[in-house]
Each structure stands twice: as C-alpha cells, then as structure tokens.
Amino acid sequence: MTLRNDIDEILFSEEDIKEITKRLASELTRDYDCKNPVFVALLKGSIMFMGDLVKYVDTHLEMDFMDVSSYVGTKSTGEVKILKDLSTSIEGRHVVIVEDIVETGATLNYIIDFLRSRKAESVEVVTLLDKPIPERKLEVDVKYIGTTIPEGFVVGYGLDFNENYRNLPYIGLLKPELYN
C-alpha cells in the first residue's frame, strides 16, 4: 500500500502549488520591500509552504516558528495551546503569519491577538488554502490567500491526518473512510 492509495482525488499538483506560491511571494515582495518582516510559520503544517514561499520573496526577511495546537484528529478543540513560542522579539516589526490552511479561524485569531499584544507594527496572514466551512467560528482577516478549497479533509504538502501524509508533494482529498 502506498500513500497515494489513501487519496480520493489530487486537488493541487506540485506545479499548481509552485504557481500559487510564486504569486503570493510576488505580492509579499511588493508589500514588504524594505520593511524586513518576520515570517512566522505555524508548525508543523506550514513548514513546506514556508520553505517554498520564502525562496521566491525577493526582499530581506527573517523567519521564526511557533508550534500551536488546537486539533485532535479532524476536529478543533477550540482551545489553543502554544507548544513553542517565538525566539525573536517582534516589537515594532512587521509580522507575516504563514499558515497552511484556514478553517475554523479560532487558532489564527488567537495567534493574531497574541502577536499584536507583543506590540508588532503589523500582523498579516498568508495562507496557502482557505476552507470556508460552516464550522468557521470567527471571521479571520487573511490578506494573502493562495486558493479556496471545497469540503473534504485535505492532506499532503505539510497537511496531515494524525501526523501522516505531510510528506506528499501534492495536496489531495483523503478518502473519507480513513477519518470517519
């Protein structure tokens, strides 16, 4: 059995992801030129996206990471836990949160407020995927959106189900019988 056998449909190929990432990087380059922003990846899901994104951002930037948790299996618990905090001071800095997917909005809103409380000059979000779902608890102000996706549980390119499938080079819909 290969991981591909667990995928119902491939939504975005490696090439699709690269095109989306380059487009977002171009927007970020334009908006953050000469501002030396701090790009903050939310671990673990956004690590592949962050790695590819910053390769195409053509301005000075710094990178940092936060590890936050609010999911058990496929459901958000509604409680956000910070497992790893930033190692860089962001006071007076422009911060770009790099997220793999926006779903309920709870975790992202918590992190935005948390970073603003540290006196960041600005806090914006870049996400590869936006998944507007009925369970979205809070509206999230996401300035940079790669693409919107349909219902279904997506994995690959950093996105996981119980820590599996992150290593897929594409994004696909996981077969429902595997997570129901």
Account of the 3D structure:
- This protein has three helices and nine strands.
- The chain is of the alpha/beta class and 180 residues long.
- Strands 4-3-2-5-6-7 form a six-stranded mixed β-sheet, with helices on both faces.
- A hairpin with a 2-residue loop joins strand 3 and strand 4 (75-84).
- Helix 1 (14-32) packs across helix 2.
- The longest helix is centred in the N-terminal third of the chain and has 19 residues, at 14-32.
- The chain starts with 6 loop residues before the first strand and ends in a 6-residue tail after the last strand.
- The model has no long low-confidence stretch (mean pLDDT 92).
What characteristics describe this protein?
alpha/beta, single chain, 22% helix, six-stranded mixed β-sheet, 180 residues, 3 helices
Into which percent range does the helicity of residues fall? 10-25%
Poorly predicted runs of 5 or more residues: none
Q: What is the radius of gyration?
A: 16 Å
Mean pLDDT: 92
Output the helix-strand order. EHEHEEEHEEEE
**Percent of residues in beta strands:** 25-35%
Task: State the shape.
Answer: globular
Tally of helical segments: 3
Identify the strand order in the major beta sheet.
4-3-2-5-6-7
Largest sheet: 6 strands, mixed
Query: How many beta-strand runs?
Result: 9
SS-based class: alpha/beta
Task: Give the termini separation.
Answer: 20 Å
Task: Summarize the model shown.
Helix content is 22%, strand content 34%. The protein is an alpha/beta fold and 180 residues long. Helix 1 packs across helix 2.
Secondary-structure topology with pairs:
Blueprint: E1 7-12, H1 14-32, E2 38-43, H2 47-56, E3 62-72, E4 75-84, E5 94-102, H3 106-116, E6 122-130, E7 144-148, E8 154-155, E9 171-174
Parallel strand pairs: 2-3, 2-5, 5-6, 6-7
Antiparallel strand pairs: 1-9, 3-4, 8-9
